[in-house]
Amino acid sequence: MTETVVSEVLSEVRGQVGFITLNRPRALNALSLGMVRDLMATLLAWKDDAQVLAVAIRGSNKEGPFGAFCAGGDIRFLHQAGSQGNPLLEDFFTEEYALNHLIHNYTKPYIAFMDGIVMGGGMGISQGAALRVVTERTKMAMPETAIGLFPDVGGGYFLSRCPGRVGEWLALTGDTIGAGDAIANQLADGYLPSDQQAAVWEALATQRFADGAAVQSYVASQFVALPVSGTSARAYIDHFFAFSTVGEIVRALEAADSEWARATVATLRKRSPLMLHVVLEQVRRARSMGLAEDLRMERDMVRHCFFLRAGQSETVEGIRALAVDKDHAPQWKPARIEDVTPEMVAPFFVSPWPAHAHPLAALR
Predict the structure, then answer these.
(1) The CATH classification of domain 9-357, taken from the options 3.30.450.40, 3.40.50.2300, 3.90.226.10, 3.30.300.130
(2) Which residues form the Enoyl-CoA hydratase/isomerase domain (predicted)?
(3) Most-buried pick from 15, 26, 167, 291 (CB within 10 A)?
């Protein structure tokens, strides 16, 4: 009996719009190298196709389309490849970041239907969209410090451009936000109730549009007002996450007498101490960088995370504890925030390549 191989990325042109559905629902559409390559090939083909005025992308869940956008990169692959020194790991990050760059610079409106879980690599393929659509089911986060990594896929770039110190807060804690906070923090453009997505998606295939801008305008016209209060903790975030070091942030939170401060510091104490320091430096540096420069910096950082800390990859250990052995007891090195020195952080920001030989040298 022959087994049918189902594509993990479904793409088709209907009417004047290119439609992409991420089709790996059992893994919450976590991105594999094959999916990254399929997305890149599809977007490059449509870029010069006069029939395609705009692109729409969505995820799928076990019941069908929508419901889950993308939970990030395939961390089991990252653990296996990182443990074994598999060169495909290098290809994955190089090609994923090039895809993120293409989406941010795409010449046609790229519209992301960010229903359900949108984390890590899912943010990478949606934050560069011309229109970022969220629903009442959206759960958005950059949770990489929980696995001893950093918010990559351009995370330095888009988080550092959130208002106030929201970028530092989201990057360090990995906290999850919903639609209202996503819009308030400039990580989404509009709200569409989940039960209205299918009708809008179908209308894109059947209506006639004058140009790509008309496609984008149509989707935006379907947005529904959401009581956007912004996070009630915004004043706290801007106060505590403005401190210049992780140590100062943690000390201030521990000295504060509020439930929010206690919960936040408890979260930070679970994260990789080393990577908290690295991530704070990443976000602060990225604030003055363009996207291409930020992606090159993050590509350097990934090489350090997986290959240049001999036998001490915080990332491999973090994934082991969270997703492989699931003991939720990572052995971080060093174990305490207070034991991280500037000399441990500095190497992450030294590129292992000369500029002309950087894997992402061509990005502009």
Answers:
(1) 3.90.226.10
(2) 17-349
(3) 167
Each residue's pLDDT tens digit, 284-323: 999 999 999 999 999 999 999 998 665 688 999 999 999 8
DSSP-derived pairing of the beta strands 131-134 and 190-191: parallel
Instruction: Check whether 328 has a pLDDT greater than 60.
Output: yes
Cα separation, 184 vs 163, in Å, equals: 9
pTM passes above 0.90: yes
pLDDT band for 4, please (50, 70, 90 cuts): low
Choose the catalytic residue: 15, 73, 82, 116.
Answer: 73
Query: Active-site residue among 18, 67, 121, 128?
Result: 121
User: Which two three-digit tokens encode residue 346?
Assistant: 């500095």
Q: Is 15 a catalytic residue?
A: no
Of 96, 152, 281, 300, the active-site residue reads 152
Residue entry with tokens 């239907």: 113
3-state secondary structure of 17: strand
Active site residue 121: yes
Q: Which amino acid is at 284?
A: R
Q: Do residues 140 and 182 lie in contact, with contact meaning Cβ atoms separated by under 8 Å?
A: yes
Q: Based on the residue annotation, tell me whether 73 is a catalytic residue of this protein.
A: yes
Catalytic entry in 115, 144, 294, 317? 144
CA distance 28 to 73: 10
